Fold this sequence. Notes:
The structure holds two protein chains of two kinds. Chain A is 19% helix and 35% strand. In chain A, the strands form three sheets. In chain A, strands 1, 2, 3, 4, 10, 11, 14 and 15 form an eight-stranded antiparallel sheet that branches. In chain A, strands 5-8-9-12-13 form a five-stranded antiparallel sheet, with no helix packed on it. Chain A has a two-stranded antiparallel ribbon with strand order 6-7. Chain A is of the alpha+beta class. Chain A is built from five helices and 15 strands. By secondary structure, chain B is an all-alpha fold. Chain B folds into three domains: 20-242 and 363-390, Ferritin, core subunit, four-helix bundle (Ferritin, Up-down Bundle), CATH 1.20.1260; 243-362, Four Helix Bundle (Hemerythrin (Met), subunit A); 395-577, Up-down Bundle (Ferritin), CATH 1.20.1260. Chain B is globular, with a radius of gyration of 25 Å. Classes of the chains: A alpha+beta, B mainly alpha.
Amino acid sequence: xxxxxxxxxxxxxxxAQGRIPTDPxxxxxxxxxxxxxxxxxxxxxLDRIIYFQQKDGVIRRSHCPAVGVFVTSGxxxxxxxxxxxxxxxxKIPIVEGHPLYNAxxxxxxxxxxxxxxxxxxxxxxxxVNPFMIGIEGNDLTxxxxxxxxxxxxxxxxxNYDISTLTPFMMTTVVVNSLEIILGSDVLDRTAFRNERRxxxxxxxxxxxxxxxxxxxxxxxxxxxxxxxxxxxxLKLNDPANRRTNQIGTQVMINYPLNAKTASLNNEPIAPxxxxxxxxxxxxxxxxxxxxxxxxxxxxILQEEIG
Amino acid sequence: xxxxxNRSTVKTNPTExxxxxxxxxxxxxxxxxAEIEHGLTCVYLxxxxxxxxxxxxxxxxxxxxxxxxxxxxxxxxxxxxxEHLGLVCNLLNAIGGPQHFDRPNFPQSKExxxxxVDLVLSKFSLDTMASFMAFEKPDITPTDDYxxxxxxxxxxxxxxxxxxxxxxxxxxxLNGFIYLDGKIDLFIGNEASQVxxxxxxxxxANREFGITMIDVVDLKTAKQAICEIIEQGEGVIxxxxxxxxxxxxxxELYEKxxxxxxxxxxxVIDENHWPEAVTQVxxxxxxxxxxxxESLQYIQQYPKNRAIIEQAVSTIVPSIIELxxxxxxxxxxxxxxxxNDLRTGINSAALNDAEGAILYEIxxxxxxxxLRFWDLYQDLKSELSKPNNFEPSRNVADxxxxxxxxxxxxxxxxxxxxxxxxxxxxxxxxxxxxxMVDMLIIFFANxxxxxxxxxxxxxxxxxxxxxxxxxxxxxxLTMLPLAVDDEKPMDALRAGxxxxxxxxxxxxxxxxxxWVYLNERLQDMAVLGEDLQDPDxxxxxxxxxxxxxxxxxxxxxxxxxxxxIRENFSLGKNPQS
Lengths: 306, 577
């Protein structure tokens, strides 16, 4: 009896959004008050959902990047054999033209960063829950979820005790990460925020002219209030201030996709092994409430033959 | 860039006349400071929790944003008051004093601490902000105008004339440290018990939360801790060092203004003093106007503040003319009332508007509590003057309490919460507050506990109890009715977090199992939280549909989190079990 293993090893990159309140606000504060992230006038409440793809709920502010995480490279390869006698059957690089090139990588199930200000675990970055990666390419869709304890698959983290969860809390890899600087195009954090602020100030000047012409235009007044808040926040630009400082922080997630069932082209399958992932998040842009994502996932589909 | 005060320039002048002269008095004064910091934190939080949040509360999007920004100012100040309390704990620890988290229940009249205004729980409003400014008001040229009984070894309260500010109390404390250092072996506390920035670690070196803990081990560090408090609160350094040479004229003028303001409320306007008292008020008010007009030439840095002073003058002048007319008439209760009202208006314009504009020019630390509150007051006043019936706060009752306490027997304006569900939520709030305070006592005493245990208390009391319990439950209470109101339930008065004090349980004798009491308390809270997770259907009468739905979600979330906090504490205090 042989084992045939089909692998998709994918690298993906892009920009994500998480409209989250920040401590010391309660973790579910709808607008943000005492932290440094806010729902602005004219925007819906903070929903705390992490978006890897553009969909309802993503609020793109002016001069901020678009949301979208996509496969940029990788390999599709097949091996056969068992133990020490495994051999390559095929090895195809994932480049333009491959069904998974530029495939959408999504975080499914309305994932949030869950820690509830040290209620679940003693760490500010929390655990991404649910952590369910969806891959959507041409003619190929795959998804699978992570559970902190595969013998007890629970949707809510409070159903696991602190010792079960602690190994999975997101960890800070580097505080001043050069990988982030290159990956996010934020070459200098302070200059980046000042540049954004200057753009917003120009927009504000235009709105002020509109206000002069029509002082009672509520839509203009709301936009002015929103811009003023963004500008005021961007002015807090001391390199030690977390608004600025956190842009350079690189945070690592490496949860295995280990749920008993997965989905392949919308059909349930029962993978035999966990699928490893490794993702870093960084370049946290408090004004955009977004961050860049760079990660890897290996989909392992095994079949026993003979 | 924010100008930082140079602490090395701190000078004080302790004189033999009025100085704390023994350890007992110094501990007493520090305990009073701890009570005030603790009380002010609760007062500020109550007010912040009373502010509207959602558009269905009759506010528009721009007003919602304004309210959010004001609330962040008040919460930020409250966080710093907590820091001040922590620094006072270190000062107490340094001289062998006990941790002091006791305080009288609300409301307390101004006589209790000899402060300028009462210590009450009240919703967000102009009046409330005016009282906050009074607590944080800087004394830019302080004197030793306070009494101490120098002939006894047991302590007496420091009685500071004309209603003391928090700054003056700290002036007295600092003088006590300076006087006693070297005369007695003052710093006898265990240095290891000092709580520093590594012990309180809520992220980002605590800077983001306005927390700068200082180890107090000698006179130099005691001064640093006291200056940190005064700089953040009143924006000055002690003994008038905040006054720069180029502000000397304005400072002298302000001193005269301050004297007139103190005199304004002295004349008793009644039948026995008619019309002399009114004439006296007119004279004082005229002097105030002259001083305000004179001050305009010195308002250089912030031209907008000139307009505020001019506006105050234009409010006061017609009132003076009106008072002159009334003084010419015979006494009647109506005339007396009118005269008193006019004086109140003059007082408000001069004190809440013009005085802040002058102090803005003088005070070095523009980011201090007083000026932040004054800014907020001006902004709120401007919004309220617009013709749109803007009401930024929920209809929250003053001092909504579960019961009258022994220390508030004669207090006015206590509102007993009667609505059953609200009472239960308030019980939960007070139990959580009490438990958190008990944990803070152990944390700040920092004696006989391991580093892991200290971390456990931080990980329970700071985050999550402060942020995931006190604040959300405090806000929920301001949605809930104070009492049954079948006629107009949507207009019913609301409750609020009353921060009630019962007994100090944290200092129970050591037990065979550690902190069983706290564990039991958290368990009781989780059980009560479970009972409360499905709010009464009757509450639908008092809340909009979306507010009721929000309440349901919040109470379920609260229960799950309370259960978890207890579980974590239980596991953490004894990891082997």
